[in-house]
């Protein structure tokens, strides 16, 4: 069983590991997980063995089921878990007759295989078309056998799965690179829109606030300035500023004189409400500004995008070659 990871409560306490440094047949890219043999009866395991094997099967790339011609591994508990695995991940499930050289003569081996197939076909979840069960065994020079050994096919299946996993990973790398680049591009585009929007609401906030403050101040100053003569204003403010104040205050006083006396109070109330509304609008626009990226943040995001686009993504082919070279045996180089 090729597995990517392991976490099932209770299982980790009963794990043992063996490491091989061989690089033949991409051996260092494979993690084999040998699950315990299951027997019927009152055998109690120290953890939920069915849950553990099912979980491992879901994580694995391949699931090998070995039938021993001696015991035949046809106990109910074994077939139950095999049927459960077939329902959840049947495309990864492969059956083999192990120790096939110990099954006796060819007729004996055929009888054993027929018995296993019949037992499997009784299970609805395992009764499938195109059922295959290659015979495999470890050759013994001291004990030659005429039994066909298809163990090389197992190695080819593993190598094919590794190549597919590597290619799938690199394809996913390319997709992830495109996703990251498009996400960064979208974020930068959104930031440009946010900057434009923030400038617009900032301008609206400034104009409303400025007008809301300027109008009442001008209105009050008009009456104050009207109490001074032009000579007094010139001495206090200078001729240029005095002239400007005189023009503005003159306009305000001119319109003020057009208002009937009995309507002046109402005008002041309406005018004050209008200025207050302008200040509220200024506060409203100020609150609608959105946070934008700083120059440093935009520079970092741009650098990330360029690095991923120009460096990481373009190395896909080289990564594939490098990855396979790491597992190549010396005689393959």
Automatic annotation (TrEMBL):
Locate the transmembrane regions by residue number: 203-228, 240-259, 265-286
Write down any Gene Ontology CC term. membrane
Gene Ontology MF, one: GTPase activity
Compartments (UniProt record): Membrane
Q: Which InterPro entries match?
A: Mitofusin_fam
Q: Which UniProt keywords apply?
A: GTP-binding, Hydrolase, Membrane, Nucleotide-binding, Transmembrane, Transmembrane helix
Checking PANTHER family in the record gives: DYNAMIN N-TERMINAL DOMAIN-CONTAINING PROTEIN, TRANSMEMBRANE GTPASE FZO1
Report what the protein is called. Uncharacterized protein
What is the scientific name of the source organism? Solea senegalensis
